[in-house]
Give the backbone structure.
Amino acid sequence: MKIRLSLIAIVFFGTIVAPPQTVSAKPQAIPKCPTAKFVNLSKSAGAGPSYAKPSQKVACSATEVAVTTNDMISFPFVQLTPHALTPQNMTIKFPRSPTATATPTSVVNRLGTAGITVTGVVFYPVTEGPTPTESAYGDPYYNKMLDTCGGHAGPQSEYHYHVLITIAMCNIKNTGIIGYAIDGFPVYGPTACLNVKCTKTALVKSGYTQIGNPQKNAWDAYKYTGTASSTVLDECNGRVQPDGTYGYHATLSFPYIIGCFKGTPTTQTGAAASPMTMGGGTGQQQPSGGQAPAGGQQPSGGQQPSGGQQQGGPPPVGGPPPSTTVKSNSVDTLSFRDVTSFFCTLTINHEVR
């Protein structure tokens, strides 16, 4: 009797060791238009009774994502600059499938649009403009020129962020994608996934160290001194994600969102290309953190600090730098089986997504 062996069942006891994975900073093509990443806040309380509600629309071509927005916020507007808040008509464009370049693009003293949050509000690089003289190109977070959510109104009466603060009232999550830079790479919250399924997470932090007074010329007041730690971000304030793609992370220490463009930034047009020449802040104290506005959506994963206070509030001018987004750098415990029993065929396919 001839017996043909077509399958061998092998029982292993012990720990499975996966083969080494090749990690690349070049992300895979976005499989579909990221419309679902953007949040509809049209039914939120908005900036106030007399203000327009947030509105945005996402459209994609084969190569580009275009977000048309009125740039309105979903939380109460507090005027901290000489500028009012009015609806805009902006279209922010960025690559659908971004690629890391050999040399990052500097954002030192760069003014204007650097990206857009999933709530439809633009964000700028870290520094302010050349006026007022006493805080020229300074750090607006350090100088108390930002509201509870990390932004203020600019010279075109447009609201923009310099910092992304992940508390409930701001409708920005603590983990996952919270925005996109104009080079196409996503911006994640401060809690980072350490594996593809995100069953293990850690709190990441900036690799910059303060060496001077960032009241003015902020870039001269910080130096990148990153370490090999997987929870310390690179010079662009990002890292290679578990799936091999690149992404920035929001932090509450310099440079807050992006320290340089990892990819090629898309040249913006229209209102999104308007220059930012801030006329100075009022120096008012930032309002304390509050509850989510009526009708607003509390983001999943967003953490309201204990006691309802804003976490990592700005120091007085000339004081110490703000704390990082999170006070603890502990890593969540990942449960797993110490002993694994499995059957395999002669050919085992291993796919990493």
Observations:
- Confidence is low (pLDDT under 50) at residues 1-23, 278-353.
- The chain has one domain: 27-335.
- The two ends are 45 Å apart (CA to CA).
- The CA atoms of residues 83 and 157 lie 6 Å apart.
